Amino acid sequence: MHFGVLTAALFTLQDIPSTPVNSSDSLWLWIAMGVGVLALIAAFVLARIVLAGDTGTAEMQAISNAIREGAEAFLSRQYRTIGILAVVIAIVVFFGYYLSPRTQDVALKTVIAFLVGAICSGLAGFTGMYVSIRANIRTASAARTSLNKALQAALRGGAVTGLVVVALSLLGVGALFFFFGGLDHPRQVPYQLVGFGFGASLVALFAQLGGGIYTKAADVGADLVGKVEAGIPEDDPRNPAVIADLVGDNVGDCAGRGADIFESTAAENVGAMILGAALYPVFGIKGILFPLIVHAINLVASIIGVAVVKTNDTEDPMSALNRGFYVTAVLALAGFATAVYMMLNGPGVQPMYLLFCGIIGLATAFLFVWITQYYTESKYRPVKSIAEASLTGPATNIISGLAVGMETPAMPVIVISAALLLSYYCGVQGLAGFPGISDYAKGIYGTAIATMGMLSCAAYILAMDTFGPITDNAGGIIEMSNQDESVRDKTDKLDSAGNTTKALTKGYAIGSASLAAFLLFSAYLEEIKSIVTAKVSAAGSAGYMPPGWSFTNINLAEIPVFVGALLGAMLTYLFSSLAIKAVGRTAQMVVKDVRDQFRENPGIMAGTSKPDYARCVSIVTGAALKEMVLPGILAVGLPVAVGLIFRNFSSTYGAGSEVLTRNGILNVPTINGVPVNLGGASAVAGLLMVGTISGILLAMLMNNGGGAWDNAKKWIETGQYGGKKSDAHKAAVVGDTVGDPFKDTAGPSLHVLIKLLATITLVLAPLFL
Amino acid sequence: MHFGVLTAALFTLQDIPSTPVNSSDSLWLWIAMGVGVLALIAAFVLARIVLAGDTGTAEMQAISNAIREGAEAFLSRQYRTIGILAVVIAIVVFFGYYLSPRTQDVALKTVIAFLVGAICSGLAGFTGMYVSIRANIRTASAARTSLNKALQAALRGGAVTGLVVVALSLLGVGALFFFFGGLDHPRQVPYQLVGFGFGASLVALFAQLGGGIYTKAADVGADLVGKVEAGIPEDDPRNPAVIADLVGDNVGDCAGRGADIFESTAAENVGAMILGAALYPVFGIKGILFPLIVHAINLVASIIGVAVVKTNDTEDPMSALNRGFYVTAVLALAGFATAVYMMLNGPGVQPMYLLFCGIIGLATAFLFVWITQYYTESKYRPVKSIAEASLTGPATNIISGLAVGMETPAMPVIVISAALLLSYYCGVQGLAGFPGISDYAKGIYGTAIATMGMLSCAAYILAMDTFGPITDNAGGIIEMSNQDESVRDKTDKLDSAGNTTKALTKGYAIGSASLAAFLLFSAYLEEIKSIVTAKVSAAGSAGYMPPGWSFTNINLAEIPVFVGALLGAMLTYLFSSLAIKAVGRTAQMVVKDVRDQFRENPGIMAGTSKPDYARCVSIVTGAALKEMVLPGILAVGLPVAVGLIFRNFSSTYGAGSEVLTRNGILNVPTINGVPVNLGGASAVAGLLMVGTISGILLAMLMNNGGGAWDNAKKWIETGQYGGKKSDAHKAAVVGDTVGDPFKDTAGPSLHVLIKLLATITLVLAPLFL
């Protein structure tokens, strides 16, 4: 049977007899789910170990409790807000599906998947944060005795987040696949999981936006009024905003990035399963379950990687963390190779090529991390050039930082381009034995395997990332409770390693978002094809489906697609602008409150009375939650608006239909002789793809520019160009402050935006047709 | 005869019998050319009038002479550099064409067109500058007696640039059309003119880059060492860099923007003629000559507009300039309407709709100018918010300015989207009487008419723009020659109006570049179609051409197109980064030289001896010319590299061929049964389109962000937030300095880059196949 016809006929649930699945193949689902459960248990054990640690002096506990209360208060209010938004969107999605006759049967499933995705993401964020805000004081306390103990406490605390995030993504997708009948209808059910990715994205968007606004508003506000106006050092307990600043590290870096990576793995799981379904004739259900197995490997490798990390009191903690990462990467690669040879194999398949796709993905991750280091570490040219430019004042520091930021996308874009081209090529070669399948489908599957390869160490990377805010908090607790200099040295070392890991994971996150983007486009195109096929088939004899038709034509030369592309790129700029302005406004409220507190209570500066930390925390919480709504609604609303507008007006512009029929041969699907209107779907695809490209570049500019400014300041503080208090340092502080909302609010929120665009278009595709 | 088949057969010069052109129709060519010659005469007369003006005191003359010598020295060295590059590129283009059998016959014509375009652009730049560096002192001298005389001297000096630029573009295209035999082969010759646009683009790129680097390096360098280190005011004659700064205004703003608009009109003329050729069955040669007539109208309307401008000593000069603009716009519109009804008319055409396209273009120009005002004038929220943020220091000033900059693309993108959709719609409606022509071709022609409408006031706009550097220079001459306070008041008024016009023209330039971009894409697609058609037809019976085939499929879902798109967007960032860094490096050389001069000759600061202005001018000249080469080569090299790489490797990735044949129906052109490889052409199109989108947005960010910073500083100087010398003012100066290379180097260079990408791909299209 011709493959094109076969896939064309595949996607109407009603019409296709269920495909009996070899029960030994479905075992893979249970293996993956089993590992997921074990990983949760491991996370629980790790959490118990961390929580059993010593909690230091009463003074330290008081500080830690204040952070914990602030973080938990923010999270609970944030989740309430997100919950309300999620329910509203769930209702919209449900009726969106229900209004289209073809999708009525999946309406409820999509909403269930959406809610499960949202809840799992929330749960993962909450659990990770629950542990990390308790790990901070244990790390601080351990630093009083041994660097190794402190390092292990922080990394293990971080590992809880890493394991819970990946395991819940795996279990959520796996469970939905099973309960939706995936073992009976393996080729249809992956499409019904798109809601899971969207739910994860939605929570991630608000978690990252709200957390990002919170953390930088508190940071900038505390610095402006504390360091600049009052002349007190960072983390000084007299500063009423100091606790809000420490809370921010948790809710921004920890909960935010956790939600970001949860979304990445969720979207990648679902997208790769959809592409696996398109290759069902080659791999059967094993191709669909492969992404889940990859994440099971990811979990096992990461647990071992975390377990082997130990250090002594003289070593740079970063070396110990890197050792753990290398162990994880080698194990993940070995596991990946085994999985490829066991699952993606068979007559006509050359698994070597497919394994090579995975290696390309892993290599891409390494290169992204290396490029991020090059642009943000003080030993290389970019940071040095910013530090040197600080000699002539803040203006040249800023110009130089922006120039570095604009340079940063060049190398990553070349790496991503090479990775896409190579993995596509390997996909085509690896499946060359199937002449009936288009090279396009084979190549795209190659890029999907590369994405899985890149994400195959995600749990360890996330552990390293969450290590950052834990050590940052530990340092703050030590600083505020006036511990010994030698203890402070240890936490400073850890804090510095934490800053590095935070920067590197940002490189990793944007790299995986870039690679996953192409996978998600392809899934979107498959989704549109599946809906059109079902529509035409539902029309019975009035419908005509050209043999082997696919929706793979996102033609930039069509006006609606071009307009969609323009709007998509514009969205990334406007969204960033709103996020940055939100930080500015919220920071002003912090400044105002701190000034008020200093005025109302002169005892604070004298050190005779305590500032009201909670008041400041509560103000930032309220403002950040309010500010996250507008950019969030813009991100959700614009793609929907474009899809709906061009669905209704596109026939005027001939998008997706007229251009295809212009040659006089009917090669578009028709119902009653009228071509199916693909204008809305095409315009949205243009928005998605060009929005993604623009978002990736802008995020790199902001993340790396911000990181470079930060480290230029730190480098000057080591004594370069006059060291602390020199004019160069003052100029560098300006750059650092500018970089803060770039690298910790707008940049990371753009990662999430890119993936949200992909998942929202996947879920709402039926509305655009 | 079916239109598709007709156009498919059109484009091989050898095969098609010449189409006899109605001689009354060819009269339009002579009318347009005649007006072009008259406009040159008018420019000559205007120049005579301006040059007849009084040249002030000996002290003023000494300053003016120094500016003139510096500007002329720069221009002559710059043109030598550009000349060498142009000859090298001409040779490459010639052999590029000559290696492809189909294009051998046009190889020489393309090179001739390229060189004519480059020479005309250089000539226009040189003439405009020749007059404006002489108009500055006449303006300064006139300001000693009457504001009206000064205003008229400056505007008329600027009008010489405006008229020469538009007239040379018109005459160059018209003459080439005639000498290449356009009256005999009207449907083929427009394709042979693409070299003219490329020549103009190449000169414009280097003129804008070199001039932009020069002007801002001198400005930033002079400020850093003069205002900040030595504590002397702007334009103080003791500053050795002050003449270089004034020279910079001429070579950057005046010669640079002149080349930019020359390129816009040239590219628009050629692109619109190609689209006119595609609609030959409807309008005949009149559709091809229409763009030339529009520019003839532009010239007449602008001459009258300039002539009516007069003011009195109390009025805001901006009101007088605006009156002239309104007169020009009304006349241009009336002329445009007449031309539409006389030329774009006939059975089946509804000229009302086509006129409406032109109105849409003009309205777009107005809206762009209004939006630019909104974002850059101190009476609106954005500038006010930056000024307010300056209260908390330079960091918040910068954050706020960047947030404003990132917000700016939103409204223009919506305007451009609406303009594209509406003009496309009107194009389809206006030509609804021709069922044989695809809606796509009709709609695209509608967008082309809108672009012509937008550019129909270009000469006046350019006069207003060149008014800026002339009044800026006049102010500097008055300042340096210690004139009376009342004279200074007059030049300050003019200078302030000049700053406004400079900002507005930047809005206009980016608006026209955005709208022209779509026209140029379409011309590129037509060009590819024409080459493929010729190739297939040259293969005789071995070739197969699907009926009505067009190259209109730039499919972002194909890996090579997506990679091209990623690289195109990346190019705009890297190019901007290089331009900004070039300013920084050159400014450092200025700082060093000024410091050296102060040290070597203490009499300078004491006011007892003159600084060596020429030494500083010569240093900036050399550095700016060196620095413009790398970004220039990147801009030229990357599209060529992408085209060549994917031409050779694309078959692996199935771009432009496999996807189209996937449905099993052969709807691609083949030779010996092998599909023509369109991978290179597709990847380049992706680069072009997404590079353009990214470039437009980035340019808006930089132009408007820079303008807003500038005016926030100026607003504070009027006494807001503590006025001059307050901390808020210091913070605002930082923002202004950061904005300088944004708004005067990188932003304007991006306008040119966008158009260069379009013209280089048009010219080198044969290499990509």
From TrEMBL, chains A, B:
Any matching Pfam family: H_PPase
MF (Gene Ontology): diphosphate hydrolysis-driven proton transmembrane transporter activity; inorganic diphosphate phosphatase activity; magnesium ion binding
EC top class named in words: translocase
GO CC terms in record: endomembrane system; plasma membrane
Localization annotation: Cell membrane; Endomembrane system
Membrane topology label: Multi-pass membrane protein
This protein's record includes keyword Cytoplasm: no
Catalyzed reactions: diphosphate + H2O + H(+)(in) = 2 phosphate + 2 H(+)(out)
EC code: 7.1.3.1
Keyword Ribonucleoprotein: no
Keyword annotations: Cell membrane, Hydrogen ion transport, Hydrolase, Ion transport, Magnesium, Membrane, Translocase, Transmembrane, Transmembrane helix, Transport
Names of the cofactor(s): Mg(2+)
Positions of the record's site feature: Determinant of potassium independence: 502
Residue ranges of coiled coil: none
Stretches that traverse the bilayer: 28-51, 82-99, 111-133, 154-183, 189-207, 288-309, 324-344, 351-371, 410-432, 444-463, 559-580, 628-646, 678-701, 750-768
Main location: membrane
Self-association and partners: Homodimer.
Described purpose of this protein according to its UniProt entry: Proton pump that utilizes the energy of pyrophosphate hydrolysis as the driving force for proton movement across the membrane. Generates a proton motive force.
Family named by the database record: Belongs to the H(+)-translocating pyrophosphatase (TC 3.A.10) family. K(+)-insensitive subfamily.
This protein's name: K(+)-insensitive pyrophosphate-energized proton pump
Origin species: Granulicella mallensis (strain ATCC BAA-1857 / DSM 23137 / MP5ACTX8)
Gene: hppA
